[in-house]
Specification:
alpha+beta, Alpha-Beta Plaits, four-stranded antiparallel beta sheet, 5 helices, 19% strand
């Protein structure tokens, strides 16, 4: 049996954004983490203030452990390689959304098409839509700190 998860999490500090000049390297680094943990990376897409990671899930590792490893390792990688002039951290928390095998193509295309998607919708709008679509009860005060003016790279 295969399970499919889309993981979504956000950058913590307003000035410590993912830069277009190194976003592909970051995505490759995170891909290696996912694969080293025996998950199958289906799609990955980052924006200046958040990232989507769509995986075929290895049931031998808990999602919180995978997310923690991705966040910790990628933050260290950014710092070690001097990618950001500011302290880079991921915000606490993450979204984890499950999908059926029949949805693989649609979700993968969605994740890979983040830049065009965010021409029309902010990360806040996108994330709240996810929570509502998946019937997740939430209190707005516990959501990420969103930066509504971040839509893409210049």
């Amino acid at each position: 049996m295969q399970s499919y998860f889309q993981l979504v999490f956000a950058v913590k500090n307003r000035k410590a954004l993912i830069n277009k000049a190194w976003k592909n390297e970051l995505e490759q680094y995170i891909t290696a983490i996912v694969q080293n943990n025996k998950h199958k990376l289906i799609a990955i897409g980052s924006m200046p203030d958040h990232i989507h990671i769509f995986i075929g899930y290895n049931l031998n590792q808990r999602i919180p452990e995978l997310v923690e490893e991705i966040k910790t390792s990628s933050s260290s990688w950014i710092k070690y390689n001097n990618k950001s002039p500011f302290r880079f951290e991921w915000q606490n928390g993450y979204g984890s959304f499950t999908y059926a095998h029949s949805q693989l193509d649609v979700v993968a295309k969605y994740v890979l098409n983040q830049e065009a998607h965010h021409q029309k919708k902010t990360f806040r709008e996108e994330y709240v839509d996810f929570l509502e679509k998946f019937a997740v009860e939430y209190d707005a005060k516990y959501l990420f700190s969103f930066f509504d003016d971040v839509r893409g790279w210049e």
